[in-house]
Design a protein that fits this description.
This protein is α/β, with parallel strands linked by helices and about 775 residues long. The radius of gyration is 32 Å and the shape is globular. Bound molecules: adenosine-5'-triphosphate. This is DUF2075 domain-containing protein.
């Protein structure tokens, strides 16, 4: 222990040194222009390089501080490496690695080696720390011929994992770099570059594995991903808050997180659809329906429509417009971008009409007007406000919001019942509207060609400057960070953190945002990688939107069909993916439940088995001493008091067991407010504060979350999959408070779970 503590002291001293250097460098880079070499373009670029480099380093130093080093690998060939959250080198001429980043290849045996396949290891050590103090060591001997003993062997190999799983929850998910399991490691580092589907039951680590995969990809493909950013889509804001600290704690910040209701820049879904409306809006056919609706808005004039111009009246008949419309549609451009073609054809034909009239030879000879005269006539026709108004009427410009709002107010091309389900005038946007807005934006297009051309020319200029600055930075680098075998692949060197193009983008006066920030504002942004959690919930229309955001199809999809409850969700992975990648996707499964103890899992599984006797839940890695309990009250109005009493009892238990902890009351939506009022210390609402000791949630809000204790209220009101989700959120204790009879599968599970001597009465709490 003493030797590891000495090492830890050296390591933290080095970290402090690096942090100070980075802070100093950052301070001087941020100094006012006059002191830092003037305000020239070149000087500003150099400053940007420094700021990007040093703030990246600082973020990594700060993130790496907690649990900086957690493992050690001693190889048979004499190599001896410490493994940590980030890689750090000594300040010597060889830049010897002090600690290796967990994502480096050389760290892999830490997660994969077994007695059977030792991967060249003699021993593997887990180092537990509190702050900078080493508090425990666990050694595993992997080379059976190794007779050396340290006194730290022989402890349960899973001790570190189990202590992490037993720890009280904080309301925030933590990284698992110290205890990644072999089946998880294979997914995190999967070489597959396309769509990877990670499936598994509740608590199998799907979410945490996907986040670590993002961290790994940001390391392994840093150049691409730092520029294109990673998008993480999660079911609700509470969930995103819950997982939000995992990647920053691993030093990764180039990530945008969003719910499906936030995927159209400038709009946030705040209203809720009925299940019927959400189902209709989510259907793949809506893409065709909207496309037809856009064509409907390309209209024909009333017969005999006359337009008055300075040069006389013009007849705008259906033939003229039909031809112009046909020619505009033939361009295959989106509606708004095809409009100039339509306008041009209409003006051309009206001009011809005018020219025929003005320049006609009464004796039947050729037209008197020359090409210049006709061109002049064309200009005056185009400038006519009446002509413009007619074109606006026949081929109007729309924003996506206008188009979708018009469609919802009068839904066409839908069967009557479906149209009724979605009909809405005005009002706020819903989550199911977001893919419709995106589809509309695709159908309409955005005429930004001139702005794009200008921006691109300016950008090329900046890239040339930036390349010069980077060459300068590369030549003068003093590198601290290194953990990959390849000397040239500095993980966080300036020239990797920020390449010429990114630097050029950053140098743009008006736009100093990160890639993730720019991505958030840009509907057409192509992300380097997308992670979708609770992917089984998304509708076919939502998938169309997401696939547009990721043309490379580099995606990790996380889901569990048994937890699917959204109306209109896609169903099978094949159905989701076939239109976009055919059969070119990989499917991996996780089979061990790290969250829910077996007593609780048995009860939850009973609920699904009641509808599907062949259902097999994931195997729980833990059991706890507490049997789930149920308490029945005579009438619904007694629920709030009973829940308040149960919360007091359970929080006291958590206090006894873990010193702290988090409890969730999961109740049907209509009861949430009443229960929250009966629990004054609790947090509830659209964005509940999960770090509070007690939260009150609806079943959909509980998705993906976990708590030490969970009290499920009135489960008869839940759908089967919602109930399964609710019952599988607890890491320690589960209770049910109800007035109505328990659903069939739950009642049977509770009976089986009751400890002998507890009376066998489901109606009586096992706790008394
Ligand atoms: N290797 C591990 N080491 C430590 N903790 C782990 C490990 N794997 C998973 N866990 C923990 O198990 C819990 C469940 O993980 P996670 O939320 O990712 O599961 P999930 O499969 O997404 O669950 P659900 O589908 O129910 O939302 C988390 O607290 C996670 O940190």
């Amino acid at each position: 222990m003493g030797r590891e503590q000495e090492f830890m002291n050296v390591l933290y001293a080095r970290l402090e040194e690096l942090r100070e250097q980075a802070e100093d460098a950052l301070r001087s880079a941020m100094a006012p222009a006059g002191e830092a070499g003037g305000g020239t373009f070149q000087a500003r670029l150099e400053r940007d390089v420094m700021v990007a480099e040093q703030s990246g380093l600082l973020a990594a130093f700060n993130a790496g501080e907690r649990g900086l080093c957690f493992g050690r690998l001693v190889f048979r060939d004499g190599r001896d490496h410490h493994i940590g959250r980030i890689g750090i080198r000594r300040d010597d001429a060889e830049r010897t690695p002090l600690v290796i980043d967990w994502r480096a290849d050389v760290a892999r045996p830490f997660y994969l080696a077994t007695g059977h396949t030792p991967m060249g290891l003699r021993r593997r050590r887990h180092i537990t720390t509190e702050g900078q103090q080493v508090t425990a060591l666990h050694d595993e001997i992997l080379d059976l011929c190794d007779s050396e003993r340290t006194g730290h062997e022989g402890t349960d190999a899973d001790a570190v994992l189990l202590s992490s799983l037993d720890a009280a929850r904080t309301g925030r998910m933590h990284d698992i770099v110290q205890t990644i399991q072999a089946e998880q490691d294979r997914i995190i580092r999967a070489p597959h570059r396309g769509v990877l589907v990670v499936e598994g039951g509740p608590g199998t680590g799907k979410t945490v594995v996907a986040l670590h995969r993002a961290a790994y990809l940001l390391y392994a493909q840093r150049e691409l991903l730092a520029r294109r950013a990673v998008l993480i889509v999660g079911p609700n804001p509470a969930f995103l808050g819950y997982i939000g600290e995992v990647l920053p704690s691993l030093g990764e910040t180039g990530v945008l997180m969003a719910t499906p209701g936030e995927l159209f820049p400038g709009v946030t879904a705040t209203a809720t659809d009925t299940p019927e409306a959400a189902e209709v809006k989510g259907r793949a056919e809506m893409a065709d329906v909207l496309a037809r609706y856009v064509r409907d808005r390309q209209t024909l004039p009333e017969p005999g429509t006359v337009i008055g111009t300075e040069d006389g009246d013009l007849l705008l008949d259906a033939d003229i417009v039909t031809l112009a419309r046909h020619q505009a549609r033939e361009t295959k451009l989106p509606h708004n971008l095809a409009r100039p073609h339509f306008a041009f054809r209409v003006i051309d034909q009206l001009t011809a009409q005018l020219a025929d009239r003005i320049g006609a030879d009464p004796f039947g000879g050729p037209n008197f007007l020359g090409p210049d005269d006709i061109a002049q006539l064309g200009i005056s026709v185009a400038a006519s406000s009446e002509v413009q108004a007619a074109i606006d009427e026949l081929w109007p410009l729309f924003t996506p919001q206008e188009l979708v709002a018009d469609f919802l107010a009068d839904p066409v091309h839908l069967p009557e019942a479906d149209a009724e389900a979605v009909r809405r005038t005005g009002g706020e946007w819903t989550t199911a509207d977001i893919p419709l807005l995106d589809e509309a934006a695709e159908l309409l297009g955005e005429d930004d060609s001139a702005a794009r051309a200008r921006a691109e020319a300016e950008r090329q200029e900046r890239v040339a400057y930036a390349q010069g600055v980077l060459d300068l930075s590369y030549g003068s680098r003093t590198q601290e960070f290194e953990d990959r075998d390849d000397e040239d692949s500095e993980v966080l060197a300036a020239h990797n953190l920020i390449d010429a193009e990114r630097l050029a983008d950053r140098a743009e006066e008006a736009d100093h945002r990160s890639a993730a920030e720019r991505a958030a504002a840009d509907r057409t942004w192509a992300f380097g990688h997308i992670i979708v959690d609770e992917a089984q919930e998304l509708s076919p229309m939502a998938w169309r939107l997401l696939m547009r955001r990721c043309p490379t199809r580099s995606m990790t999809l996380v889901g569990d069909p048994a937890q699917t409850a959204e109306p209109g969700s896609c169903g099978s992975w094949e159905r989701i993916l076939e239109p976009y990648v055919g059969e070119r996707w990989e499917h991996v499964r996780l089979g061990v439940n790290y969250r829910t103890p077996s007593q609780i899992m048995d009860v939850a599984a009973g609920v699904l088995r009641a509808v599907d006797p062949s259902f097999r839940p994931p195997r729980s890695i833990r059991t706890t001493g507490s049997a789930p309990w149920a308490h029945r009250v005579a009438e619904e109005k007694e629920l709030a008091d009973a829940v308040a009493a149960a919360v007091d009892r359970e929080t006291a238990q958590l206090g006894d067991e873990a010193g702290q902890g988090r409890l969730a009351v999961i109740a049907p939506g209509e009861l949430v407010e009443t229960l929250a009022a009966a629990l004054p210390e609790s947090s509830a609402g659209a964005r509940p504060d999960l770090t509070r000791p007690v939260v009150v949630l609806g079943p959909r809000q509980a998705k993906g979350l976990e708590f030490d204790a969970v009290i499920v209220v009135e489960p008869a009101e839940f759908g089967v999959s919602d109930l399964y989700v609710a019952l599988t959120r607890a890491t320690q204790r589960l209770g049910v408070v109800h007035a109505a009879a328990l659903p069939e599968g739950l009642e049977a599970g509770m009976r089986a779970g009751l400890a002998p001597g507890a009376g066998g009465e489901v109606g009586a709490s096992a706790e008394g």
